[in-house]
């Protein structure tokens, strides 16, 4: 019975890897090769896309900007969340249980959904 579990996990892992393999396959093709055959293996392998990204665009500056924004956002969220969690856990005030239930319910809805609808 254990082999069946391993087989199912192997199949699920293989299915989960398909988008990554498609991404690598597509990245190694030229524009004409991709338009001719979207799923076939790249022949010849083209690395000009990577050279163009690394040397012709300011990719490292863009990555640094993204890391600064993401790090600041995570840090600020962590500080606010810790202060709110301490207040909800340790202090007695009116509507504390309502605030806790509301904040827990808001965690169930991903914030991407309202942004996507807009």
Structure, described:
With 118 residues, the chain is mainly α. The chain folds into two domains: 1-57, no CATH class; 60-118. Helix content is 78%, strand content 0%. The chain has six helices and no strands. The chain has helices spanning 2-27, 31-36, 48-56, 59-90, 96-108, 112-117. The longest helix has 32 residues, at 59-90. The chain is flat, with a radius of gyration of 24 Å.
List keywords for this structure.
mainly alpha; 118 residues; 2 domains
Give a short overview.
This protein has helices at residues 2-27, 31-36, 48-56, 59-90, 96-108, 112-117.
Overall body shape: flat
Overall domain count: 2
- Computed Rg: 24 Å
What is the number of helical segments per DSSP (H or I, 4+ residues)? 6
Structural class: mainly alpha
Distance between the termini: 48 Å
Oligomer: single chain
Low-pLDDT stretches are: none
Per DSSP, what share of the residues sits in E-state strands of 2 or more residues? Answer: under 5%
**Biggest pleated sheet:** none
Residue-averaged pLDDT = 88
Reading the helices and strands in chain order gives HHHHHH
Q: What percent of the residues sit in helical stretches (DSSP H or I)?
A: over 70%
């Amino acid at each position: 019975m254990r082999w069946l579990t391993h087989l199912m996990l192997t199949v699920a892992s293989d299915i989960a890897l398909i988008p990554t393999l498609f991404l690598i396959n597509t990245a190694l093709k030229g524009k004409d090769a991709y338009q001719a055959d979207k799923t076939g293996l790249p022949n010849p392998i083209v690395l000009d896309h990577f050279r163009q990204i690394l040397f012709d665009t300011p990719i490292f500056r863009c990555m640094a900007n993204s890391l600064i924004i993401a790090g600041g956002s995570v840090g600020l969220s962590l500080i606010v969340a810790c202060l709110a969690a301490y207040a909800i856990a340790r202090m007695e005030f009116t509507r504390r249980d309502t605030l806790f239930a509301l904040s827990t319910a808001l965690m169930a809805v991903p914030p991407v959904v309202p942004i996507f609808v807009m």
